[in-house]
Sequence to fold (549 residues):
Amino acid sequence: MVRAAPPLTRRTGLGDRAAAVRQGLSAYGLLVWMWVRATLAYRTSFLLMAFGNFAASGLDFVAILLMFSRIHALGGFSLPEVAFLYGTCSLALGLSDLLVGNLSRLGARIRDGTLDTLLLRPAPVFVQIAADRFALRRLGRTFQALLVLGWALGRIDVDWTVGRVLMVPLMAVCGTAIFGAVYTAGAAFQFWAQDAAELQNSLTYGGNALLQYPPTVFARDLVRGVTFIVPLAFVNWLPALWLLGRPDPLGLPGWVAFLGPAVAALMCAGAGLAWRRGVRAYRSTGS
Amino acid sequence: MLYGAVVAGSFRRYATYRVATAAGVVTNTAFGFVIAYTYLALWSQRPHLGGYDRAQALTFVWAGQALFALIAYGGLDELQDRIRSGDVAVDLYRPADLQLWWLATELGRAGLQLIGRGVVPMAVGALAFPLSLPGSPLTWGWFLLSVTLGVVVSFALRYLVALASFWLLDSSGLAMVSTLACMFFSGLVLPLRVFPGALADLAQLLPWAALLQVPADVLMGARTGGALLRGLAFQAAWAAALLALGRLVQSAATRKVVVQGG
Fold:
């Protein structure tokens, strides 16, 4: 039985806001649990799809391995170092894709008019769409990324201090939040352009393809673009450069590597504002 | 001519998805830049890797992005859904052949995607990087022929996957394996000539080599004269073999189909 959450009214106080967040999270949990149970009803199908997700994201790494069968370093980075970049960004993308990736289905819901149903339900519409058809199979990418990351961590030449050890999970959390903000902003854009779901792929999957290679490989302007305009470089490039003890190709000061949480928070706030504007601007397709 | 009308109709249908096409162009262009820089790094360390010079390697990247929407996926999910729901029974009643009908829709889609999603990434790539594009219109003609054959092979492979829905309740697992094989063995992940040793030779014999490897080689001038004709013959042979296999499976499937109701 699914408990219906009490209706949300306009809240202003900090305590009220915390209650609203708790309520949203519990609605998210209930919806996700429903989809997980539905998924596990077809176990073989789930295992197959999870394996497919694993293999699909593994193809990128196979390409890197094939490249390294011909060379010893790419852009001055060794295979374990590239694998570390690959593991960290793929993990962040995998987690955000798992948690909020289905926001990209918003355009389809607007087109067929089913968004209206969600707007009537007593739970935040963001939560409902993020959890819509929650795809547990995406654990495949996460698992694959963790394997590569684990392999890389054992082989990169880093003098492990407490700070450096803590940096790895921090990268995963901030990276997940940054990609999550991209998913949210991309979905918000679909309130105006319903067919533009593929646009965000250039930043999510395209960003992932970019970040898994060392920044030294790319043109300066491209690196500047993903540092200052769409700050994807904070997912793994900047903290990883610090961790690996390598100079920043843009010559940024060392403390920039620690700005990940601030950048992630800013991006999430911006994406949240964009989402609100989108919801306010929404006009149903009509009958 | 019935199938000509289907081609034109499918072309017009996909022409209406303007925003989706624009979004796809942006994504393909972004991917093109990322892959182009990684190939530049690779080829700066190993010039002439796989027999390509740098301009040819970059041409391969942008050809892959320009042709991505034509060869990597398509509109056959719709056929798969129609088989699963049983709507295919209506299609079988129509005075048109199922395979030719869907081939016509895919050719129409490919024509639109080549113009809508192929030209812009290729032009951007040519502006940003030194590409090895043909000067003679004749080579462009061979390239278009090679792309057309690649689209037919891609269709024939995906048609077989869709027909599997007649037997499998849920063929999404098979579709996934097919997509993975397509990504890897077409050269979208890495040019097949760059694969190590025997894997390179094997990959260039498989049908997926007809999707991107051969058209890209024709475009960049890595296949001329006898090699050009051999490449086109290779594509045509796989197209014929897979279409024939599709017909066999189709006739087996239509004998099997049972429609409920009166």
Remarks:
- The first helix of chain B runs from residue 2 to 15.
